[in-house]
Amino acid sequence: MRRLNRKKTLGLIKELDAFPKVPESYVETSASGGTVSLIAFTTIAFLTIMEFMVYRDTWMKYEYEVDKDFTSKLRINIDITVAMRCHYVGADVLDLAETMVASADGLIYEPVPFELTPQQKELQRMLQVIQSRLQEEHSLQDVIFKSAFKSASTALPPREDNSLQSPDACRIHGHLYVNKVAGNFHITVGKAIPHPRGHAHLAALVSHESYNFSHRIDHLSFGELIPGIINPLDGTEKIASDHNQMFQYFITVVPTKLHTYKISAETHQFSVTERERVINHAAGSHGVSGIFMKYDISSLMVTVTEEHMPFWQFLVRLCGIIGGIFSTTGILHGFGRFVAEIIFCRFRLGSYRSTSVPLPDGHTSNHLPLITDNSTH
């Protein structure tokens, strides 16, 4: 009884077989089928390799939301070289809340030569090339995000000792913590002093002939300092054409959360618009000579996350590739054989030419003669 039940069970299971086996004696192979199979296998292998490369790659996902953090401080990282001596210039920040942050809170004034060494010039030239490519190819920013902490620092290499070249410029570098509101970071003539109605700079003791606000921005960023991230103003160099010249940078800062497989940090991206003009009060161009960076904080926060294709999705896509190619090539092969058989059949029928049969009354018949069993003998 158990054997009978087992045979019945196996019989039921066999009836549910969705993949019936065809005996090899009933399978007919052909050269066309082998060619199509070879093309199908080659296509499957190529697409499988490409799909595996896509599976190994990652991409950046951007999400936007309202920034709800208004109480924290904003860090400004600065490394700017001005072509004036350090005791002639002063740097500070004044925000919309009339709060002044003096440069003594975190900036260092270092006398240096304005001219770069060959090694430093090479790095600056490389940064300028990258900046120009970033303006043309925005997708390169994703590559920079992925390579954060892996690539080399964008800071200029230390200068070799050169006693023949005297320091004629001032390198202002360090960081400041400011309120998370719009503000104005500026470098102008004279040291900043507090004032009841704002602030002022002691510029009366400096001759106008010594004004030279040619400058080089080696680094400017907001938020946490992340090595390998290239910011829009890194590598910028401006040469003043006049003693009384104003350089303005209008910056929009966007809070950014960066989550990759290497790092997780809160930083800030920014966009910038540049403007420069000569101060000439007689011609109606008013203002103060110096370098002014007016920044504003965006109300939107961007979350950048590095994502990877799940393994199950890779398997599903791979099965779709294999099954789709087999089905498509099978349909195309069957259709091709059908068309070929129709063409060959018409060609064979056309090969039977009509023959003329004489009739007793002198007429001819163009019909094919009837082939009988007697005519074959």
UniProtKB/TrEMBL annotation:
Q: List GO terms (cellular component aspect).
A: COPII-coated ER to Golgi transport vesicle; endoplasmic reticulum membrane; endoplasmic reticulum-Golgi intermediate compartment membrane; Golgi membrane
Q: Keyword Membrane on this protein? A: yes
Endoplasmic reticulum vesicle transporter N-terminal domain: residues covered: 13-98
Task: Outline the extent of the Endoplasmic reticulum vesicle transporter C-terminal domain.
Answer: 165-331
Q: Which residues cross the membrane?
A: 35-55
Q: What is its main location?
A: endoplasmic reticulum
Q: How does it sit in the membrane?
A: Multi-pass membrane protein
Which GO biological process annotations does it have?
Answer: endoplasmic reticulum to Golgi vesicle-mediated transport; retrograde vesicle-mediated transport, Golgi to endoplasmic reticulum
Print the keywords alphabetically.
Endoplasmic reticulum, ER-Golgi transport, Golgi apparatus, Membrane, Transmembrane, Transmembrane helix, Transport
Where found in the cell? Endoplasmic reticulum membrane; Endoplasmic reticulum-Golgi intermediate compartment membrane; Golgi apparatus membrane
Q: Which family does it belong to?
A: Belongs to the ERGIC family.
Stated role: Plays a role in transport between endoplasmic reticulum and Golgi.
Name of the featured protein: Endoplasmic reticulum-Golgi intermediate compartment protein
Gene encoding the protein: ERGIC2
